[in-house]
Amino acid sequence: MLLIRCPYCRADRPEIEFRHGGQAHVARPTDPSAVSDADWAAFLYFRDNPRGPIAERWRHTHGCGRFFNAVRHTVTDTILATYPAGEPMPDLTAMTRPEGGR
Amino acid sequence: MSVARTPDGGRIDRSQVLRFRFDDSNLTGHPGDTLASALLANGIHLAGRSFKYHRPRGILAAGAEEPNALVTISRGGGRVTPNLRATQVELYEGLVATSQNHWPSLRYDAGAINDALPDGLLSAGFYYKTFMAPAGAWAGLYEPLIRRAAGLGEAPTQPDPDHYAHRYAFCDVLVVGAGAAGLAAALAAARAGRRVILADEQAELGGGLLAETALVDGIAAADWVAQTVAELSAAGVTLLPRAQAFGVYLQNFVGLAERVTDHQMVPHPKAPRERLWKVRAGQVVLATGAIEQPLVFPDNDRPGIMLAGAARSYALRWGVRPGTRAVVLAACDSGHAAAIDLAQAGVSIVAIVDPRADGDGAGAAASRAAGLTVRGPAVITGTSGRLRVNAVTVAPLRPDGGTGPAETLACDLVLMAGGFVPAVHLFSQARGTLRFDAERALYVPGDPVPGIHTAGACNGAFGIAAALADGFTAGAAAAGTVAAEPAPAVTGEIVPRGSWRGALPHGRDPRRVKAFVDFQNDVTARDIGLAVQEGFRSIEHVKRYTTTGMATDQGKTSNMNGLAIAAAALGRPVPEVGLTTFRPPYTPVTFGTLAGPSRGPLFDPVRETPAHAWAQAQGAVFEDVGAWKRARAFPHAGEDLHAAAARECRAVRDAAGLFDASTLGKIEVCGPDAATFLERLYTNSWASLAPGRCRYGLMLSEAGFVMDDGVVGRLAPDRFHVTTTTGGAARVLAHMEDYLQTEFTDLTVWLTSTTEQWAVIAVQGPRARDVLAPLVAGTDLSEAAMPHMSVRTCHVAGVPARLFRVSFTGELGFEVNVPAGHGLAVWEALHAAGQAFGLTPYGTDAMHVLRAEKGYVIVGQETDGTVTPDDLGLGRMIGRGKADFVGRRSLSRPDMLRPDRKQLVGLLTEDPHALLQEGAQVTAQATPVRGTAALGHVTSSYASPTLDRSIALALVANGRARMGKTLYVPMPGGAQAVTVVAPVFLDPGGSRLHG
Amino acid sequence: MVEHPEASLAQTAATLAAVHKQTTVAHAHSACRWVLRCAAAVTPELAPALGCPLPMTINTATTASERAALMLGPDEWLLLAPEAEGAALDTAFAETLSGYPHSLVDVAHRQEALVLEGPRAELVLNAGVPLDLDITAFQVGTATRTLFDKAEIVLWRTGADSFRIETARSLLPYLRAMLAEVLTELSAE
To answer: Could you read off the pLDDT of B670-729 as tens digits, one per residue?
Structure first.
């Protein structure tokens, strides 16, 4: 079970208090009617699946209830950073680190 | 006195005798014994039959690594645990153990015929090769046969009556293993003032120090242990004996399985059998020790052949002489240490056979000084004895690897000292990389893992002195300090030096010998060679093909030998061949421990509505809706569910019904932008909804599919009372919070779940107003004052209420919301008031029929996540003037506009009393050609008492264009012809809503 | 499981230093409850009506006489008061907050509370609560939403050895049964 730092509670809290919410920084178009079918489909269904750090939405469901973003390394499953929703995405390339283990 | 017990010594309480049973034998032992030590004390080595060949097997080890002596312990009353290692089972008065995998008995096992089968029949990958033809015979013939012949203990057949506990625990430093290194690490951390947990799988803390003749700090090793444990206890360290660390997970989350009562004769009836500790540690010190490896030589598996260190432990810790005449095969100096201590215990050491070219070191010198015979370099080339070893052949080992003339030595005990392998399992689980120490031919922890420290033998620091020093260093590092004082001095120890990896030369025809590598899965050296010969290169493939290391012991005594043999066959160095992955659990963990209290009534919360007790007293039949219990129907005496629901339906249509709708999700949406927020979350319009009115809302996912629906009432300009489906309550709130927090951050709105604040009682039917009116204060219920789809705050039965004029039956109806604590009283008041008007409580069965007669959909029944509003015929719910709401853009994607989308229709069977099956396919032909796609499926189907015929709702491709057409629904008894009709069977004009 | 019907919100707060021979769980008295959502800047306005300042540190509680405010989110407070004061406070809150954007929702009947007291309270809770409850990590006055096994709870440490646990009305039987199981298990030690 991961420990996840909630940026609102400012504490490391156990994973079971949280819900994963998919990739972060996928903004809903401000005017969906102006978006082409292809772009809308991409918005709805296409997500990154990198080997390495990815910014994800998490919600502290059984805690403060806030959505926030976390950078998680998909190989080591370690959470490298958490930050409030709305803040810019950190530089992921700087967060790639030795993967360790298998 | 048992036959093989030493006259004194050992950590057993000789003043007490414990009686126990092993198969048909009644035996005795002492407190402090394990089942294995007690068996050996009774002269019993034969403890089980092997997995494939059913060869007699004895006790090999003295700890968790035991591959052979697996037993079933029965405590009566369903308390049966198979596959326990006899080396870890503590003896108690009345213990009943049975050996496994034999028929008819341990001594005479018919399955042993497998050992005499033609060469290769059960060799590596046999199940891929031998039993292939004829096709189909595998499942019916071979598999059952193999499963019966090969296997472990039998799974218990009765429910486990024990209970199991869970506990989260937190500490600064968790030390795993309480041997020399672990005790030292715990001391260092405790002296630095840290919160420490010290866990060890054995009943007594001390590890190898409990079977040791060396002195620590000038006192007996065991006394040093006692002194240290006392200091730790005084320092507030949590001491956990009998606690196996079975898994290390991310961020130092460690699973410990503590055996709480298995060692007790009569456990406290309320005590848990085992407790799962979920430990979150700041730092972890792994002091898990090392595992002595067997040596691979022909017939190395007979009872009486065991690990040297284990034999030494049996002598020193348990006062057991595991034999009378021993031959020691010592590729490691631990063999010498064992020989010296066994000789001291009265075992005659026939010879110490050392295969090493450089074997003549400190160990050999100590043996000679003790007057023991050391031969070397030499090997054992074979053994004899059916149920117990009775002789070995020993041959000199020539420098070219060949063997010289063999000599037979009579003996009843053979000790194997193959060298130690660090128990790096937990370190590896913690994603630590391993480094191959070529000089000692073993893997040790490599690059450090943050927060994880290794100490002692598990770190490659062999010997007590080295382990203590390493432990102090690691403990101090874990505590964030440096060791303050030097480790205590150790005198008189023989440090385990040396090893032999892989098969020993034997000079015999390899096709005619079985030299075992993996005792538990019956894998021989030749099997591994065969796998390489057949083209397997990766050690992970060799493992799976030969099954070496795949048994319940996970190769604790076989992986390194298997790896060395594979490497030799491949002609590559060991580190290039790689290493198989260590995965949790280190030793098997019972399901009960993992499940903990989550079983029976505590498996999952059961949620009951405020009026549940009333319904129960009325004999209601309940169904599970999520975690909720909902009344399906209130059958009268002699009524079945169907008859009850039919009666309840008629009551609602003819008079009035009372329905518990408390499980509906409720969300209070408040704030200046509340209406705007709802505009964006629901398809229809909210800005125009006046306070005091309510509206049916349809909620879509962003992909455009219906995800929930419900009535929303506007209580004030900035306050809405939103309802959701029962199952959708949590999901809808999360969906709303998601958009509110992450997309529509421009809005000032707050959401509060009020599902459980309100008990909801629906009063439905032509007499609903008559029932309700006398109980209502503060509002006028008349059609003019309170029309359909309005909401009022008022008092009902003296309780503050939110009263909705809504209907999910098609009848005049109200839904009374009162604070949950008043729910039962208000229900009872309404029920009493309604008696004069024929008011009848109804359940979800009747509710389903009533709403289907009206064509009202249920999200999750008519919808499945691929259904749009238009598919349901609810296109009118899309706010015409709305530019955007969640899901809107998706509704114009090409696929959503396809003309052949499935649309909601009604189906009427040709035979009015034929009832379609929900989920049945709808087809164009009575007997469709194989491969023809169905047109859709039946979503709801009921016998309608009002219409005196069956009705069904279905999703059918282009269904609205098929009105009046005949389609078919294939059913088990033959296809039913159905007519497609509009999905409203009763009162399409809606006049009944007005009473 | 020992019933302890006298336990009330006020007494719970008052028993900070009480040394109990036994660890007990009891049903707390009925209470008024509101969920207040608003900007943090608005909360000082409410303090006079409530009788105590609202906490401004997330996951902490403030108390005054028999009332309490628990800050469970960055803009979320759970307000507790004795049942008899409900109507008066309702009015006072409404008056105070009018003019400020806010959400005040009565949840008195949404939740129920248990009071757990005694030297082994931490141990009992850690059977299902995944948080470090050591007094240094979870100090007196800490209050947070979390889980007890499968039930969401609000856990408030009212004293060194006393906790108030709020949970949804329908989850109370589950929570009580779980706590009873743990107390039974500990009684065997």
So the answer is: 999 999 999 999 999 999 999 999 999 999 999 999 999 999 999 999 999 999 999 999
Q: What distance in Å separates the CA atoms of residue B694 and residue B803, rounded to the nearest whole number?
A: 11
User: Which residue in this structure is represented by tokens 């010969």?
Assistant: B533
Q: Report chain C residues whose CB lies below 8 A from the CB of B664.
A: none
Q: Which two tokens stand for residue B274?
A: 């085992």
CB contact under 8 A, C109 and B757: yes
H-helix or E-strand spanning residue C34: strand C31-38
Per-residue pLDDT tens over the stretch B647-663 = 999 999 999 999 999 99
pLDDT in tens, B88-115: 999 999 999 999 877 778 888 777 777 7
Pick A85's closest partner by Cβ from B250, B742, B884. B742
Determine the 3-state secondary structure of B783 from DSSP: coil
Instruction: Give the pLDDT score at A94.
Output: 79
% pLDDT > 90, chain B: 85
Measured CA to CA, the distance from residue B414 to residue B507 in angstroms comes to 20
Residue B249 touches partner A, C-beta closer than 8 Å: yes
Q: Residue B834, CB half-sphere, CA atoms under 13 Å: how many?
A: 27
Mean pLDDT of chain B: 94
Nearest to A33 among B249, B251, B889 (CB): B889
B741 contacts on A by Cβ (under 8 Å): 66-67, 85
CB neighbours of residue A50 within 10 Å: 12
| Three-state SS at C4 | coil
Q: What is the pLDDT of residue B868?
A: 97
CA distances from A62 to A13, A79, B844 (A): 10, 19, 31
- pLDDT tops 90 at residue B210: yes
Written as six digits, the tokens of A83 are 């930050």
B-chain residues near C177 (CB < 8 A): 601-602
Q: Which residue on chain C is closest to A9 by alpha carbon?
A: C58
pLDDT band at B118 (very low <50, low <70, confident <90, very high): low
Q: 3-class secondary structure for B242-286? A: CEEEEEEEHHHEEEEEEECCCCCCCCCCCCCCEEEEEEEEEEEEE
pLDDT surpassing 50 at residue B596:
yes
- C102 Cβ under 8 Å from any chain B Cβ: yes
The C-alpha atoms of residue B346 and residue B319 are separated, in whole angstroms, by 11
For residue A16, the chain C residues in CB contact (below 8 A) are 130, 147
CA distance C98 to B355: 92
Q: What percent of chain B shows pLDDT beyond 70?
A: 96
Helices (H), B173-256: 180-191, 221-234
Count, in order, helices (H) and strands (E) of chain A: 1, 6
Query: DSSP code of B898?
Result: -
pLDDT in tens, B922-960: 999 999 988 899 999 999 999 999 999 999 999 999 999
Contacting subunits of A (3+ beta carbon pairs below 8 A): B, C
Of A14-28, A29-43, B581-595, C8-22, the poorest mean pLDDT is in C8-22
> Which stretch of DSSP H or E encloses residue B340?
helix B334-344
How are strands ordered across the β-sheet holding B25-29? Answer: B25-29, B18-22, B95-99, B70-76, B79-85
pTM as predicted: 0.94
Assess contact for C25 and C114: CB atoms under 8 A. yes
Indicate the residue of B597, B627, B822 with minimum beta-carbon distance to C181.
B597
